[in-house]
Amino acid sequence: MTAAHMGLASRPNELVDDDRGDETPLNLLIIEDEALVAMLVEDALTLHGHRVIGIADTVSAAMALVDEERPDLALCDVKLADGDSGLTAAQLLADRGIPCIFLSGNCPERGGHPLVIGCIAKPFRAGSLGAAVRAAHVVAQGGRPSDPPAALRFYGERI
Predict the structure, then answer these.
(1) pLDDT tier for residue 158 given thresholds of 50, 70 and 90
(2) Is residue 73 classed exposed, middle or buried when 0-12, 13-18 and 19+ CB atoms within 10 A define those classes?
(3) Separation of alpha carbons 85 and 76, rounded Å
(4) Per residue in 72-121, pLDDT tens?
(5) Measured distance CA(14)–CA(96) in Å, rounded
(6) Beta-carbon contacts of residue 3 (< 8 Å; ≥ 6 apart)
(7) Average pLDDT over all residues of the chain
(8) What's the order of all strands across the beta sheet hosting 73-76?
(9) Beta-strand relationship, 100-104 and 51-56
(10) What sections of the chain are H helices per DSSP?
């Protein structure tokens, strides 16, 4: 998958962004078993000024990274290496107080935990990933994003 095949769009919305103007870089964890996709996501996130604390391809690798350094948010594929499930990873992260969004070609219908914020369907556009991460972080902090990306499907009554 190339960066040109990744597709996120944004739409105007009149909700108040409680975190507007806060461009503090976030520490992010990528949980993805396809190396090329993981690298594209990492590049897009770092171009938006964020810091990727690590890339994991299994649940155990993700939890090991979280034990080393706590991310502000995780981006997680649903299907992982060794038959692992991103649903399990997201639940374990949420149980530790770490918000998560799915980044998958197979978006689940629901998150199963309030800190599982939503899902971005693959393919997506790397250039808009930063807006999706910001919106998810705002929601995880109890805020309401003013301009949530259309491709970030929020779970529950988020916005």
Answers:
(1) low
(2) buried
(3) 10
(4) 999 999 999 999 999 999 999 999 999 999 999 989 999 989 999 999 99
(5) 32
(6) 40, 43, 44, 125, 126, 127
(7) 85
(8) 51-56, 27-31, 73-76, 100-104, 116-121, 152-154
(9) unpaired
(10) 35-47, 59-68, 86-95, 129-140
